[in-house]
Amino acid sequence: MFSFYIKRPDDIMATLRNVEYKVTSSGGKFSGDTVSGAFANAKRDVMGKYLVGDDAIKITITRKPFIYPNSAVENRIREYFTEY
Predict the structure, then answer these.
(1) Coil, strand or helix: which one is 83?
(2) Is the pTM of the predicted complex or chain greater than 0.85?
């Protein structure tokens, strides 16, 4: 398990809708709101949760295969939370 932070976007609702769309359209699961939530990829081998703060979103990866480097998982999750 590991955590990292992403700068909170101005429109958190739009960002989370985008994350939900990207995760679920690829077969994954997403649940949550503008305070906290959880997500998993389609294989359920990468799972995590998020917590929205005043200035940042804390992402905690709760499950991932040992062979996946933390940096690769972090980079992929950052793409979900920062791109529209």
Answers:
(1) coil
(2) yes
Count of other CB atoms within 10 angstroms of residue 14: 11
CB neighbourhood size of 79 (10 A): 11
Residue 24 is part of a domain; what is its CATH number?
3.30.310.80
pLDDT for res 81? 85
In DSSP terms, 37 is beta-bridged to 32, 50
Q: Report the 3 state secondary structure along 7-75.
A: ECCCCHHHHHHHHHHHHHHCCCEEEECCCEEEEECCCCCCEEEEEECCCEEEEEEEECCCCCCHHHHHH
What is the domain range of residue 39?
2-82
